[in-house]
């Protein structure tokens, strides 16, 4: 348990340090009281995390799978609780709503209980954005240091030498890998922010959008959609950022290092790009047809809106250029794309393309075996053939996910009285694409907003957002009382 507390203190301390730039934003806006609150919270969190860190620094820090699972659960839930303090102490939200907002930000879901941001202090808007940025980084670290080495959901088969150890096997090498990831992640964020500033967007909005874009989150610094800026160059930068955030970190690493053989074999990223192109073309054609003629929506504008919507949907970001653009395609197709998500080792949500591809290969293999019982067929996704252990892991994860979504959908449906709304809310929360629920599927006012839901429903959705990040199997593994009793 000492190792778990040691690593959690580091994560908590980093969260506290993010309150310092937020305090500067409050100072620049002339809100001295809010700046003092952020400085006080940063100091208290720093004192607590620093005390735990130095008290446990000389203790044993090696962990086995169940302990890393428990660290994941404690980190995601604990950091969500800590991230809720600014919302509550600034008198913006209640404790329940504050936890929902913090969990939504940290899990990069983008579902919000704020009805309007017009009167919301800039520091609170910035805090939501930087929470998403931290959540995206935490997602990558969770994949690399915990989920992939443990083979959760079949990920052992797709990780490279970068993930051949778990957190605790070699402390300094683990920290070195995390520093490399954080440095690259920060650099890309700064580049996106500068590009957005160069397109003419205000610096504050550019920074918040960069945080939300690279983390594939859905928080905007303004009310409405991204179309309120009416800036086609900014739309292009945001779309590029979403592509970067939703494509595999391993793929980026191999591009930088020139590992061309691995690039050819890493088919998941190419499938992701193909899905974006195909879905974008479908959206563009549909939007152009719905407009009626080119004078209402020019072909170039239809292409821009269509491909932006496709990137936003498949990357599980949730941005829109125009309200309800995502709903012009059949609902089942939209939900399926959101549920699948993008690639492993990215900040996107969903079950991931690799798992879905392996399941499709197995289903096709089983059908072929029924038709041709004596046929020998090699099912592959890339070079390695999916093993039985991999298939068992993926099917287990999928079945548990479906059960979770069914239970949460039932809770939401009981609250709002709409089955379709309950299903969309549950899928949106698990796939970490919260804005999908609020994008106009039915008549205006038919579904209540997140703010209007009961506290039980909000807590259920917030927990689902976090589980979407840490995996259901990780939660069950952390709660394996037989292991802890031993």
Quick summary:
With 486 residues, this protein is an all-alpha fold. Helices cover 67% and strands 0% of the residues.
Structure description:
The protein is built from 20 helices and no strands. The chain is globular. It has helices at 2-17, 19-28, 32-56, 65-89, 95-106, 122-150, 171-198, 203-214, 232-246, 249-257, 260-265, 267-291, 299-314, 331-340, 353-371, 388-416, 419-430, 455-470, 472-478, 481-485.
By DSSP (H or I, 4+ residues per run), the number of helices equals: 20
Characterize the largest beta sheet: strand count, sense, and whether it forms a barrel. Answer: none
Please write the string of helix (H) and strand (E) elements. HHHHHHHHHHHHHHHHHHHH
Terminal CA distance: 13 Å
Q: Indicate the radius of gyration in whole angstroms.
A: 22 Å
Low-pLDDT segments? 157-169
Could you say which overall geometry the principal axes of the C-alpha atoms support?
globular
Secondary-structure class: mainly alpha
Rounded average pLDDT: 84
């Amino acid at each position: 348990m000492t190792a778990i507390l040691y690593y959690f203190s580091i994560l908590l301390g980093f969260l506290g340090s993010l309150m310092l730039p937020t305090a500067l934003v409050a100072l620049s806006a002339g809100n001295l009281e809010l700046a003092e609150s952020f400085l006080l919270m940063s100091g208290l969190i720093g004192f607590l995390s620093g005390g735990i860190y130095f008290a446990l620094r000389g203790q044993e820090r090696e962990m086995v799978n169940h302990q890393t699972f428990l660290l994941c659960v404690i980190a995601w839930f604990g950091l969500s609780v800590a991230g809720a303090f600014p919302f509550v102490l600034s008198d913006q939200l209640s404790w329940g709503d504050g936890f929902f907002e913090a969990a939504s930000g940290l899990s990069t879901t983008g579902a919000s209980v704020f009805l309007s941001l017009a009167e919301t202090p800039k520091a609170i808007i910035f805090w939501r954005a930087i929470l998403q940025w931290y959540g995206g980084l935490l997602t990558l670290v969770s994949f690399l240091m915990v989920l992939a080495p443990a083979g959760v959901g079949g990920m052992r088969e797709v990780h490279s030498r970068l993930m051949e150890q778990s957190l605790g096997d070699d402390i300094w090498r683990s920290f070195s890998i995390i520093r490399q990831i954080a440095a690259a992640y920060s650099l890309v964020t700064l580049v996106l922010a500068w590009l957005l500033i160069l397109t003419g967007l205000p610096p504050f909005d550019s920074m918040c959008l960069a945080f939300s874009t690279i983390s594939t989150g859905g928080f905007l610094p303004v009310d409405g959609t991204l179309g309120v800026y009416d800036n086609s160059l900014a739309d292009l930068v945001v779309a590029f950022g979403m592509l970067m955030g939703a494509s595999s970190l391993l793929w980026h690493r191999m591009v930088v290092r020139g590992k061309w053989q691995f690039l050819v074999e890493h088919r998941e990223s190419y499938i992701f790009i193909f899905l974006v192109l195909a879905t974008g073309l479908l959206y563009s054609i549909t939007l152009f047809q719905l407009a009626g003629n080119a004078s209402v929506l020019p072909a170039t504008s239809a292409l821009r809106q269509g491909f932006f919507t496709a990137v936003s949907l498949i990357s599980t970001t949730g941005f829109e250029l125009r309200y309800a653009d995502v709903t012009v395609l059949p609902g089942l197709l939209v939900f399926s794309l959101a549920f699948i998500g993008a690639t492993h080792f990215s900040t996107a949500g969903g079950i991931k393309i690799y798992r879905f591809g392996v399941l499709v290969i197995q289903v096709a293999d089983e059908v072929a075996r029924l038709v041709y019982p004596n046929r020998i067929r090699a099912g592959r996704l890339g070079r390695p053939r999916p093993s039985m252990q991999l298939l068992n892991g993926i099917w287990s994860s999928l079945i548990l996910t479906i059960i979770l979504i069914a239970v949460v959908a039932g809770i939401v449906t009981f609250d709002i009285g709409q089955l379709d709304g309950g299903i969309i809310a549950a899928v949106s929360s698990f796939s970490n694409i919260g804005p999908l629920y609020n994008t106009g599927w039915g008549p205006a006012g038919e579904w209540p907003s997140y703010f209007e839901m009961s506290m039980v429903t909000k807590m259920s959705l917030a927990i689902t957002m976090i589980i979407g990040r840490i995996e259901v199997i990780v939660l069950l593994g952390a709660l394996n009382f037989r292991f802890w009793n031993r």
